[in-house]
Amino acid sequence: MEIVFNEEEGRYECQTDLALCYTVSGEGEDVPGAKALMEKLLPMLPELDKKSRNYAADELLETKNDVWLEEDEEPISKEDFVDTLILKKVEFNAEGVTFWYDDGDLFWGHYVTVDSSADGTPKYAQMMG
Predict the structure, then answer these.
(1) In the chain, where are the structural domains located?
(2) Suppose 33 and one of 3, 94, 97, 125 were both cysteines; which one would form an S-S bond, judging by CB atoms 3.0 to 4.6 Å apart?
(3) Is residue 95 within a helix (H) or strand (E), and if so which, with residue range?
């Protein structure tokens, strides 16, 4: 996987089989530190994706089944929740990584994000947008 610098966006990027991966950009961000973390974690991306999906299910499944069901919709299993998430992008910064998932309409089109530490350990999941 080749990591390239996108001058227009001011960030490093890499397209993997799973998703677009990129470093954060903008004033005050440690882009080189983010690139180093990207280089370190990219080989582990499939494993980290799996961990993140399971973490999201552990954190958000109860909310889905208690609050976000359609009128005649049955509660879903953890396995179905995990399988429904579609990884869209992975954002690296100097301190960690954020996985962005299409929710497959679990939460009516909101993104599901999972923030992880620099070693890839998930620490926070939420719905966005």
Answers:
(1) 4-69+76-128
(2) 94
(3) none
